[in-house]
Amino acid sequence: MRLPRLTFLSALERKALWLSAWMIHHANHVRPNIDGMKVGGHQASSASLCTIMAALYGSVLRPQDRVAVKPHASPVLHALLYLFGRQSREKLENFRGWKGAQSYPSRTKDGDDVDFSTGSVGLGVAQTLFAALVQDYVRAKGWTEAQDGWPEGRMVALIGDAEMDEGNIFEALLEGWKHGLRNCWWVVDYNRQSLDAVVREGLWARFEAIFRNFGWDVIILKHGRLQEAAFKEPGGERLRDWIDRCPNDLYSALTFQGGAAWRKRLLDEIGDQGPATRLIESRSDAELAALMSNLGGHDLSVLLDAFDAAARHDRPVCFIAYTIKGFGLPFQGHKDNHSGLMTLAQMDAWRVEMGIRPGFEWEPLEGLDVDPQAYAAALEEAPFVQEAQRRRSSVTIAVPEALPWRAAPNLSTQAGFGLILGELAASNHELADRVVTTAPDVTVSTNLGGWVNRRRLFSREAKPDTFKRERIPSTYSWEFTPKGQHLELGIAEMNLFIMLSALGLSHSLFGERLIPIGTLYDPFIERGLDALNYACYQDARFIVAATPSGVTLAPEGGAHQSIGTPLIGLKQDGLAAFEPAFVDELSSILRWSFEYLQRNGEDMADERTWLRDETGGSVYLRLSTRQIEQPLRTMTAELAGDIVNGAYWMREPGPNTEVLIAYQGVVAPEAIAAVGLLAEDRRDVGLLAITSADRLNAGWQAAERARQRGNRGAMSHIERLLRPLSRDCGLVTVLDGHPATLAWLGAVHGHRTKALGVEHFGQTGTIADLYRHHGIDTNAIVHAANAAASGRPVRHLKALP
Ligand SMILES: Cc1ncc(C[n+]2csc(CCOP(=O)(O)OP(=O)(O)O)c2C)c(N)n1
Ligand SMILES: [Mg+2]
Known about the structure:
With 801 residues, this protein is an alpha/beta fold. It contains 35 helices and 20 strands. It has a six-stranded parallel β-sheet with strand order 10-7-11-12-14-13, sandwiched between helices. A five-stranded parallel β-sheet has the order 1-2-3-5-4, sandwiched between helices. Helix 6 (123-140) crosses helix 23. The protein is elongated and about 105 Å long. Thiamine diphosphate is lined by residues 45, 48, 70-72, 120-121, 160-163, 189, 191, 193-195, 325, 338.
């Protein structure tokens, strides 16, 4: 015997509601609480989405669809996956515990069926939109896995209505419109409550207008079938009219109070001693409460009709589903219910109501009035679970032996970046076909122009370059084609990082590996920082080249200067940060990066560097527009290895070295000049070229931890480099960025350290003016060296400003 679709989904909804609330209750009140702290979890927010998620996961979603679930409804997702046999009971019992089911859905920690991590509201929503664009991109390339191996999926976001306040959602909408978004559904859980309170009246109409403006279909699911039937009864129109005019906060308050309160209010306001009164009075309190809470988002039949109809086309659809926060729970509708938990007494009473015996709380069939075999069969037949594994994977794309560029005596790292990509674009290496670039309206100004000239812009529909057709000379060709490999974005750095996040998950979402490279101006990383963090948190793989950077962009001045970004590079988990000075360094780093971002190996530290490179990750390149003299040298494997590990000797110190200068990035000429001056008076001066403070620091920390655990031989790259220095050798660190980036080098072996860098921003001037002002010029380095070193000072120094 088969279960009718609605019977099955209604059972699924009931169990999702019970298990999500119980999971949270168990974590807070049943499991031993060692810290005496509230464990938390969101029973009301979860209840709000149970009907919608039961309909989607039980019947509508297919294995190829990808979903971002509203963060605070993660218990519902865990519960549904448990019912489908795709999540363990042990994990549920350990919800919010060590290695248990995660507080908010997590791709990396929860496993195969969590498609997108969520948590910082708004980001997961936008991620579905960008993922839909990436799906179109890979399918347009004719690669087999995307084309034949796997059907086109739908990218779905389940959104809290207050989540819609996040600006990044609207930035994404604009981008979706420009790129002809398809296959994207956003379902708004319109419970009219946020964390603090009840939301403004009439928001749904604003949402509707916005989405329609951007070319979306909008489907408003306001009333359930019970309400629709009641509206057809005599007096029903008066009831509909009253509901339509009822303020959100009053509706919530009455929902909380229940049937008797509804009766009193409705009789007071629409009682007519005639048909409307009869409509109300013909129902018991419980029936009246059920009628008034029968909103579209809690009615399976309404939801299925809407989803089934939308599934017949690929236009983007926004569903605004009216719901009740805490639906079916004792605090439903209460404005304080966001973080509210059911009390022990409330839970016990509700348990009885749900037909659950003590000790049987986790049993999948407990409290259900369905044929167990038919129910089990329906679970097995749900389209969502028809693939054992929903995540895809991709083969590794080979990386060329070397990345050449057209050398010149003076170059900036930004120019070098353009040259290297230009050469790659001209090559017929497979890697070049997998690279996809993107930039928020800074393609030309970050030197991606050469790449785009050769590899063109992506669009599903071809569009020629009008300037070219009109024979107007221009350095850059701007031609769109489905074969194109550059995704041009509007000026929104949040969008850049969410796009990189989507591109960087293509291998897992769509089975085709992409090598995404995004560019932006370095200071504006901070504009998109949460999205960058989100991309790393999801383990998306990409390269971000940030240029220009620091105060070195001198005349640009003001808020275009970046100070703190090297610290972002240092601290950001999942991101290896580099700041090369020379183009040959950049070439080695890029080549390594192409491999690094494809790795997916064991979480094991390398014995030489103590870096966990086998796991792979993303890469941040901090570049500059300052042209500097390039070293004439051949790149040996050893030097390339040191560059990637974070530092190498420009001038190796001897045993009597009194002072060592360690620089990162674009201030190389100042550091080199300072060493020249110092060497006039001192026997031995060392010069350390640092390409990655981040990787040096990570290795140092890891080696120290290993030693604490008993591995006494553990030694990182920076420890090995600094080991030969005598105890009283002084150390000067310098970069065009915050001095704290390198100041820790003094702690490696306890050397006296002077850390130079930039702490204030906003001055315009020449590079010399600004380096002097911030104390990162040659003169300042020599002064600092004198202060740090033992022995005689250097004579003939200019005073510091
Ligand atoms: C960026 C960000 N800011 C704040 C929060 C804290 N927070 C979590 S949920 C929430 C409000 C949720 O309201 P809504 O989106 O309507 O969800 P509901 O629980 O009503 O379904 C807030 C402010 C967060 N998770 N992320
Ligand atoms: Mg809400």
